[in-house]
Batch of 3 targets.
Target 1
Amino acid sequence: MSEPATPGSRPLRRPLFQKYFLVLFVAVVVPLLINSASETWFSYRDQRLLLSERLRAEAGAAASKIHGFLADITDQLQWTVQLPWVAGGEEQHRLDILRLMRQVPAILDVTSVDGHDIERLHISRINPDVVDSGIDRRGDPAVQGARAGRIWYGPVTLYEGSEPHMRIAVAGSREIDGITIAVINLKLIWDAVLAIHVGRSGEAFVLDDTGRLISHPDLNLVLRGADDPAAARLNELRVLALAHGGVAEGSDAEQRSVIAAMAPIPGPNWTAFVEEPVVEAFASIRAALWRTGYLLLAGAVFAAGLGYLLARWMTGPIRLLERGAEQIGAGNFAHKIEISTGDELERLAHRFNAMAGELAESQERSERIARLKRFLAPQVAELVEHSDHEGLLDSHRAEVVAIFCDLRGFTSFAGVAGPEEVIGLVQEYYEALGAIITRHEATLTCFMGDGLMLLLNAPVPCSEPALRGLRMAAEMQQAVNAVIEAWRKRGYAIGFGVGLAKGLATVGRIGYEGRSDYTALGNVVNLASRICAAAEDGQILIDAATAAEIGDAFPLIALGTRVLRGFAEAVPVFSVATQQEPANAHEDSTE
Amino acid sequence: MTVLRRSVIAAAATLALPAVALADTAKVYRVGILSPAPPDQNVLGPDMTRAFAAYGYVEGKNIVFLRASAQGNVSRLPGLVDNLVAQHVDLIVTGSYPAAKAAKERAGNIPIVVTQSGDPVKTGLAASLAHPGGNVTGVSEIASELTAKRLAVLKEAVPSVRAVAVLWNADDFGMTLRYQSAEAEAPSLGMLIVPLGVHAPNDFATAFAEMTKKPPDAIMMVTDVLTNLNRQSVIAFAAEHRLPAIFEYAYLVHQGGLMAYGPNISEIFDRAAELADRILKGAKPADLPLELPTRFDLAINLKTAGALGFKFPQSILIQATDIVE
């Protein structure tokens, strides 16, 4: 649609479409965003918690597996201290211990101490056995530890700086019972550690209370000894985990970024660790984040679509209304705004349409009134317009009072006077008459130069039309006299005459499309015209019918009958006595 | 548990094999295996092949073994090493100290995994167990200590034994260390060592003659390629002269020897294969600690004992991990 240069079609600073679109978009996206963000945050927290819990549980399971490995050994060792030491009983003890070593490959050697803490047996897989060495073992921390707490776990030592070993001592329940001290090759925990799997590629490892690596799926790490940097990294993980409630993030031996959980292994005071690569551990969290991202994107697209549609839905009808208003403004009242949204906008459109109809009607009426005002007094015109008495203007026969008036001596005046003077006189003359005609609600049917014709009782009936006409005539005469007095003084002989007649006439509009006048046709009109012609300057003549109606409301002077042109018989004529009866009032006057 | 683990690894390796084959079709590893002995019950044989298979190496597919045997002649080892180097091997696995020594001296930077070579730290092949340094790693044997243990086990089985004839390859430093250890420990066990060092296969006749002339109470054979080549005659001589004999490895008991005490050979090969696997995958031997055996086998042959007319005491039966009926 081409935009005409009307004020309404200036480029919009903030179009409604933009606003609606923005508001709707924001209304959908912002809650979605807040919801997603909070959801993500909580889910992340939960997942994180869950992960920590899972790893803790795995660490616990790993710890109990390692503990199980050690408990198996201590249980077996326990059997060897059941038998009391008696003289010559070494052989039985030795057989017990040999059986034990046959069953537990991790035991490298065993030392048996009797109830007096004297070493009685030393059985090794590598060295020849020693029986009854008689060494006093009272100072041995293993003996002291076992006496104090039944089971004693020694510190981890590295054989030749490489393979980890540990001594375990088990004492019998009675004071007299012996103590068995076994050297355990901790390399054999490897099988247990290797069997622990965490997630897809996570693993387990074991550190002792000083942070030294005891067991790891990569055996080489363990065998490289205490000063290995990879093993040191694992100890850093332990320090971190201790500081963070058992779960920590850090880098493992292979410098992978991992999340690790720890669990204590009771007894030797070791710690079991499980670690899972961060990438793997957070896979589900990452997946959830992606999911949220996709959802958010979908939500935003949906919101944009919805916002666009709703904004269109809102602004479309508004555009229609705007276009309609333009059309109506341009005078196209027949334009109909078609909106069927079923809401306020539709109602507004109906209002617009109704308004256009009313405007059309009002314009039509005002045009009509303007037309009426050409021959009716404004108030009468309004009355005719508003009283639904359109029929008043229809042709019909009615009893009317016709009034004619004109200037005397005007023709000769117009001949000698300049055009400005002529127009000036006529102007003053009609201005003086107009107000009076309007006040008396007379119908002006036509101008004829210096004369005019008025009707009373048509088209709007009035009471006592003759009396009213006569009063009006008297006033007119008075007013015109004031006007012409000035002109007389300037040397122009100008007079004014009025004629009234009452009778039936055909009234109605005559003319053609766009140019019609209201008028009366009939004898009474001719009569009034003739009587006016017969009137002398300053004289108001009336016919018998008028006179009859007037009665004695005005002093009338019967002038007898007069022969008037167009009338076969002589017509009785009356003169109205006014303040200044002209000198030649009784003279016959003809045209 | 170890066996189970190995089979699990083997299964995993078999499953992973197509992928490995696809990814590394170009890469076929060349592993030289150097031993003074012919390929039967030693590092050259099927046991080592099986150990490699557990780590996903299939001979002819992604690994080629270049077996180099000195056929009992230790002096041929340097030439064999040169030959392996010329064939651009990625790795050399050695059996015995002389093989390890020859490889270390002549193979330049080629990684070496040693087995059955005594204690590599003591023999100077490696700096320490934890950090071998250089290009040598592998499995150490607690060999010298075990010699004394072997004597003790022998005495426990046959308490009357006093004089023990020790047969060893006097040209092999690792083996000599074992003899020396026996000599040092014998008095504390109330035993007497009759040293019968040999240098060549022909020396065995001399040794047998000496034992015939002055019979010992028992024989201890220190196993190396030379003695191993003559194992049948040693077993036969012991049977003939009704002498209890103790060896180092269980397979000799299966071949008629009375008893053997020593580290588990499958474990040694498994550890060696794992170290080789790591090296082939890019690890440096210097960073791979030497490993010690953790499992020890006591093998006894009841038939041979019966032939000798004695019964193993209960304590030996309890300890035996491998009993030949």
Note: Residues 143-262+297-324 of chain B form a domain with the Rossmann fold fold (CATH 3.40.50.2300).
Target 2
Amino acid sequence: MAVLEILVYPDPRLAHASQSVPAFDKNLHKFIEDLEETMHAGPGGVGIAAPQVDVLQRIVIVDVSGKPKVSSHGRLILINPQIVANGGGLVGREGCMSVPDYTGNVVRAKTIQVVAYDEFGERQEYACEGYEARVIQHEIDHLDGLLFLDRLVSRRRDLFRRKTYA
Amino acid sequence: MKKWFMVTVVGKDRPGIVAHISEALYQGGCQLGEASMMRLGGNFTIMLMVEHDTEAKTLSELLEAPADALGLRIHVDEIEGHLHEHLFPDVSVMVHGADRLGIVAQVTHVLAEAGLNILDLESDVAGTEQEPIYIMHVEGVAAKGIETLELALDSLVTEGIEVRLTPIDTMIA
């Protein structure tokens, strides 16, 4: 096990799209162990994506089970994940291990349906909502070379004020 | 040696102020840090951190030309601040009610007693001239927990001020 080095913005490698994982082998399992240890090494880390440690593969770990009052599926290993359906929209505050010293508001789907493979290559499907859905969307963005900075909305206002009153 | 200054600019609002001020600072070799601009009652207001190896007086002189041209008042203070010292709020407080004397004093007094450290505040008077309403949004750190704030605010709601607390659960991933 090892804590891997996290790439930090504006490192251009964070903007690269990741490739699908071709094989569910020992190397993958070893990498997932290291990735998970890296996620837990930072304070409050509830998710991590492989490209954050300079591995351009579509691997995400999410675990929001430590958060009280949050419904979740526990520890999720999502390989080659795809969001196949989504609904609603919520503003929430996000930060990122790859963007130190900044947090901002991002709009994410409230509910998502995710299809992914686990570390043994078994196809899984999850219905997620709220906080857990937010983390998964944040992580899948990393696989596509996007950061929450690319999706920031106003930190000062949750909603824009109407200009005129009907 | 480089030092940080807080530059405050106030004046009648018009387009192009930020561009002119920042251009003068850039030409003068200044580095900009955190900044916050707001339009308050038709006035332009900005506070910005400026780093330069000079004295406050020199910095004021640098801004004299755009200030005179745009009718702005400039104030410069040397500060002890640094970058990368953000604190992150864990609670948001929305307040609204019919505008009357003392809303801010009452609400913030109760919140301060209950352990709130305000990091960000913005407020507005809206509605009509005859019936103005007051809206305030505060974000801060609840040092004694959010439940302590909730308990403390119970007394205020009965006085015609609506106060809504929302936890800010920042997701770090």
Note: Chain B has a mean pLDDT of 93.
Target 3
Amino acid sequence: MNLFRLVKRDTITSMHHTFIRVIAILIAFGLSSLLLVFTKSDPIQAFYNLLIEPFQYRSGPIEIIKLTTSLTVISLGIGFAFKMKFWNIGAEGQILLGAIGAMVVARSLPTMSAVGLLPLMLLGSFVFGALWGLLPAFFKAKFGTNETLFTLMMNYIALNIVKTLESGPWKDPKSFQNTITPLPDNARIPSLFSEIPWSLLNAGFGIAIVLTAFAYYYINHTKSGYELSVVGESESTARYAGMNVFAIVMRTMIISAGICGIAGFIQVAGNNSTLSSGVAGGLGFTAIITTWLSKLNMFMIPVVSFIFAIIAIGKDGLITIGIPSAAADAIQGIILFCVLGCEFFIRYKIVLIKKSDEFISKVRGAA
Amino acid sequence: MVAILTESNCIELKNITKTFGSVVANNNVNLTIQNGEIHALLGENGSGKTTLMNMLSGIYSPNSGEIKILGEVVNGSSPREFINMGIGMIHQHFKLVDVMSAKENIVLGQPGSIYLNARKMSREISELSEKFELNVNPDKKIYQMSVSEKQNVEILKVLFRGAKVLILDEPTAVLTPQETKKLFKILKNMKENGCSVIIITHKLNEVMEISDRVTVLRKGESIATLNTNETTAKELTELMVGRPIDLSIERKQVNKGKKLLKINQLTVLNEEKIKALNNVSFEVFEGEILGVAGIAGSGQKELCEAITGMQKVKSGHMTFKEENLIGKSPRDIFKMGISMSFIPEDRLGMGLVASMNMIDNVILKSYQKQKGFYLNRKPARMLSEKLIDGLEIKTPGVHHPVRLLSGGNVQKVLLGREIESNPELLITAYPVRGLDINASYKIYDLLNEQKEKGVGILFVGEDLDVLLEISDRIMVLCEGRVVGIVEAKEANKEMIGYMMTGGDMHESI
């Protein structure tokens, strides 16, 4: 017989909300500690390395900011599509195409000054990313093609285009390996702070801040943002209200994929110094998780991306104290699982059968 | 098949309570079903009828209380157990596999050999069908059947599984008056064969016509059980609603104005390229309510969507005050300056955005009038507050998602928004479906108010009594054709029902 039943919560206080999340994090630490003890490591030392140590050495915070920047920009891009319930999992490919776009501009205008060249590279990356996203959007809007498969497949095409460029047309003649010629200094995003050289921290995170503000304003306070939310909730309501669903889908995907393209520009002209097939490096997939965890709240995206970046950078610190990298990945997984899993308990509560009668009388008393 | 019962009560429900979250669907409900009776379960939408019957068929299990079948307490919670104990439920939405034959559907899920003795099965099914006059052809595929035939297959299915108690959830909602009569004959036949029947309904005339006893549910509680021949429709309504209520709908006398909508030989194809509307011609004038009657799926949806520009038209003419509507999208119609309002059947899926709040729903039709990029929600917020006061919409506030409102309040948000846009033509499909009596009458009042203002109204309805009372003229559709348009004053229910099945209106009189 059933010993307990699940009851949907109507309301939850923010105190209770926080309490559940704190418990989830404690459980995550508990479970990870078990794993660490099993691998004969010291859990306290491990958590120190995971969460605190990245901030201790000079390049740690810089690495975290760089990763936060990339994740934020990509998540914002994905957020636009997700808000419309267009499951764009092709960010990876759109980043690569954006990177190609930036490279095309930089290679065709080698002598231009940075002031003129960088905005053009940004534009190039936006256009290339947008075009890559427009193709699945067109087929989805016109013929109802499944966008999940379509955008996923296009990632692999993008990856192989970059590999082709690496081994042939854009190959660095000075290199013995298949790498692309590095970008000259005028095509690199400068640093915002004079004391930190651009090779360490570039101004890419400025772009992320501007884009976050733009995304929030667009989705919450513009007619176009309202339209894409309506299309996401119900296409037939959108048609009923006289919206041009085709145009809205196309427009939104231009923005979504275009922003992912900009992330490609930040990667090649900022974080890396050239295009390579590893330039997206799975960020397009990680960003799906950060977007979802932010519950499509544009202001939450940088926060979640920051937490993600700490864990990702800190993970390397685990490996230095002899924890196998697979175990480090497992710990990251455990933390995510607990944090995501606690959402269930925020929405539902478990009531023991014995107690359910009391519960009913309480409810009845309240009503 | 029909067992001889020794107990006089075949079912006893004692103090049944069922909650969903903090919603109490059933609260200490008591119900006793005697052998060989037809027992009506009467109550408004949301009064807990279906929840109660779902517990009696093992789909839900109660939080507390006792279910006794033939004197035995049932503890189990699986539908199969209840089927084995002789309870058969016929749901409002049929649970049949379309591509299979009646026979295959009936034996589906039955224990026994995986090989079917097809001929023996067919014979048994035919015998049972004859005994209860169900007229089911065991080898006919479900998708080839009419709604009434499908219902008979459902009945046969539970009888074949040995049901002694039959539960029917709103069985007449999808039937014409003629089909309803046939169904009632079948039910009476069953009663004579010793079966008990529980019929869930909110239609009083049906309760009076068929039941032996009636139990009234209100807000999840069992209010009373009465012998039908000792009560009146008026008393039952009062029990159901909780206070006296006037059930007549007024037909306001308004002078017919100018011609608003003229439709000539309109043909529309549905997704399967079959004619959903076939050569439909009619006109709507200012200040009149044109009722549309027809069995579900006779082209009502396509008609509404064709007029509002959501559905492509194959051929024909359609003008609004002499302006052509053919080939125009909803956006084009809006840009032409035509003020047309449509209250669709699917309120939360088409008329409103379920997860959004009232402001964002009220702004849906007017935001395009705003200039520029920025969306100004202020006017919509003010309008929302005005609607909440004016139409007595019960909501915690303008920021509450409309999906969480009750059916009546959802409809008020939708109708309120549309009326505020000052329409010249109002198209409304099943505007009171799922609403309680109070909310329904509020909606009828609002429609009459619009009619007095000179608005032309196309009212697609399902309750013929209501259609006859509120409409000025009634157009009857059958399989996408207009069977006839009659003056409501001169029409009666039998005549409309006959026309709904395609019969000529002059033959029925």
Note: Confidence is low (pLDDT under 50) at residues 1-5 of chain B.
